[in-house]
Write a structure and sequence with these properties.
Blueprint: E1 3-4, H1 12-16, E2 24-28, E3 31-35, H2 40-57, E4 63-67, E5 72-73, E6 86-90, E7 101-102, E8 106-112, H3 118-131, E9 137-141, E10 146-150, E11 158-160, E12 163-166, E13 175-178, H4 179-187
Parallel strand pairs: 5-7, 8-9
Antiparallel strand pairs: 1-3, 2-3, 4-6, 6-8, 9-10, 10-11, 12-13
Helix pairs in contact: 2-4
Amino acid sequence: MVMPAAQTDWTVEMLDALPDDGKRYEVIDGALFVTPAPSDVHQYVVAAFARQLHAYVRPTTLARVLHSPADVRKPDRKRNRVQPDVFVVRLSAGKRPRYPHDLKDLLLAIEVESPSNPNLDYQIKRALYLRNGIPEYWVVNPIARIVSRWRSEDEPGEVCSSRMTWHPEGMAEPLVIDLPALFDDALG
């Protein structure tokens, strides 16, 4: 379960002082979010999406794929640190941008739904990512085997169950993900 913290103005420095207990600690605009260590289902699905995205972008100088734990921050780097489950970071002149990455460096952010607090993935992180210029955001529900996708704050989003097509600017061809096959590979 995600626990709201009594402290209301958390900083990244405060996060760094917390014990390494296997939980994920993220801070968004000074609010602390704590989630339990991910399940094996979560990790299998993360790996499956990361593999497909890696195979798609690796031959190019456009982007690279990362997965948590890896930090991403808003311009207010002291009060914001999130760790998307999988994300695609844009390269600059073929080179990695400065780490920890800025939200503006991301082309895609993916979260695998947290059963302990779906509001964090579907509402809080969606608003954070889309308000800060990430062109596309996906939330994966491994139980229902669906992906919810948003491309802007102003659009209602869509739910995909058979295939996802992702075509970032700069890529000649789109990536087409067969979702039933991906979930069978990850969870079969």
